[in-house]
Amino acid sequence: MPSVFIKTYGCQMNERDSEAVAAQLVAKGYTLAKSEVTADVVLLNTCSVRDFAEQKAINKMENIVGAARNKKREQIVGFMGCMAQSRGKELLDRLPDVDLVLGTQKFHRAAEYLDELLAGRRSQIVDVAPEAKSEAAIREHLLNGSAKTSVSAFVSIMQGCNQHCTFCIVPATRGEERSRTIPDVVDECRELVSRGVKEITLLGQIVTSYGRRGMSPAQPEPAAATGEPRLASRSAFVQLLDAVHEIDGLARIRFTSPHPKGYGDDLVAAYARLPKLCETAHLPLQSGSDRILKLMHRGYTREKFVAIIEKLRQAKPGIGITTDIIVGFPGETEEDFEQTLSLCREVQFDNAYIFKYSPRRDTPAADMPDQVPQTIREERNERLLNLVNEIAARKYDEFIGRRVEILVEGPSKKNAARYTGRTRCNRIVLFDGSARHQGQLMEVKIERTGSFTLYGDPAILE
Ligand code: SF4
To answer: Number of C-alpha atoms within 13 angstroms, CB side, residue 367?
Structure first.
């Protein structure tokens, strides 16, 4: 059978989609190649969030195609994911040697199309059409015995986003919100736990909108699906958390990405109510200026954002809070940027991912007046990065001397003598461990910190 190599760009959703495609292909008898050089099939799972990510994937494909041509090597090559969806056939016009362009609602068709291409029945395939129920098709996992994948797994609960933030291309590449049913998600989680998984991260572009719209028409509504009376006071997402929490053997639940607007009182209360729900929250802020938040179409104000963080910290003291911020959005003045700096000082995020605004075609922000020059975007990026790193380092230092529970994922990639685990608030801990620690929930005492890493000693009961 042919071998396949999948290279993934972008977010955790893309990582999860690639894993599901790889698992489907392995189930059909494909082997996984270690690099694109030796593979019979090379798939690039692409990201469109920034122009840079698209260019990287296109350059990579040019190199792959050029190397195969030089070596007179037959190789099937394809683009999948967000850029495949947004550019479609245009990619073949630019790179005529590409065989497959597979959109974001078509991952489950990868094996079928590759069979046709490998057998020579078709020479090129582009499929980016919407497909009903495709949100429920991302469910295969590659738990191939490697430590990391067998302890912790990602489960896709929904696709798409209806929020239409003015800078974001995701609604165009991932389509309207479509959610899987609670029983379907719970079945997948249960199966993962039966295979040794202890931590599940529920995934979606906007998980807090889970079940609000676009449930597959043939499927029952969430509450009816569980056989429970409808809980008017709990959103479909919190009902899903409740149902996953019931799974015996599952130790930890996480989710990403939420929207700040989705942190209603029911979700905040869930942190205090559900012991398996890890005390970590990623709340994408994007800007600290109300004026810019409005231009971004984010649907909350600075004041509301800060109030949510306060509620979360009251419900779960010690909760780890991270965020995403865009600098240099069109029209962002120095004063607006100062508002972002001041919000970061006020909230003290545990970590923040900062992005320089990148205009995306067909998004309203790309055509807004007062685009911020690249040099200013870079300068603001650096200033904000210095601030959030300084705050994060201080927060890491607060762990020194404390005992924390970690879930051990496996040997460290950089130093096999060390093992790596994660705290409940999602910090990486390195310690001198061995294979017997793998998959264990254990306590470590934090001795020192490094760059976004804690170093611990297995805690010995006194
Ligand atoms: S909520 Fe997130 S995924 Fe949806 S449009 Fe806004 S930034 Fe994009």
So the answer is: 4
The token pair at 375 is: 């040099």
Beta strand 403-411 pairing with 441-450:
antiparallel
Given a contact cutoff of 8 angstroms between Cβ atoms, the answer to whether 16 and 138 are in contact is yes
What pLDDT shows up at residue 215? 55
From 13, 166, 176, 206, mutation site for ligand 1 pocket: most ligand atoms within 8 A of C-beta: 206
Residue nearest to atom 8 of ligand 1 (CA): 168
Residue-level pLDDT at 461: 53
Q: Which of the listed residues 11, 13, 167, 168 should we mutate to test ligand 1's pocket, taking the one with most ligand atoms within 8 A of CB?
A: 168
Q: What is the DSSP letter of 215?
A: B
The residues, ordered by sequence, that sit 6+ positions from 350 with a Cβ below 8 Å of its Cβ are 320, 321, 322, 392, 395, 425, 427
For residue 205, the ligand 1 atom closest to its alpha carbon is 3
Residues 190-207: tens digit of each pLDDT? 999 999 999 999 999 999
Q: What is the DSSP string of 245-298?
A: HT-TT--EEEEE---GGG--HHHHHHHHH-TTB-SEEE---B-S-HHHHHHHT-
297 Cα to the center of ligand 1, angstroms: 10
- SS3 (DSSP) at 334: helix
Q: Minimal CA–CA distance to 197: which of 157, 240, 154?
A: 154
Exposed, middle or buried: residue 59 (CB in 10 Å: 0-12, 13-18, 19+)?
Answer: exposed
Q: Which residues line ligand 1 (CB under 6 A)?
A: 161, 163-165, 168, 170-171, 205-206, 259
Closest C-alpha among 74, 13, 87 to residue 42: 74
pLDDT per residue as tens digits for the range 297-320? 999 999 999 999 999 999 999 999
Q: Taking 70 as the threshold, does the pLDDT of residue 232 lie above it?
A: no
In angstroms, what is the span from residue 262 Cα to ligand 1's centroid?
12
Buried b (16+ CB within 10 A) or exposed e, 299-335: ebebeebeebbebbeebbeebbbbbebbbbbbbbeee
Sequence-ordered alpha helix ranges (H) in 108-177: 110-118, 147-151, 170-174
Mutate to test the pocket of ligand 1, among 158, 169, 170 (most ligand atoms within 8 A of CB): 170
Q: Which two tokens stand for residue 44?
A: 């690039």
Are β-strands 152-156 and 158-159 bridged in parallel, bridged antiparallel, or unpaired? unpaired
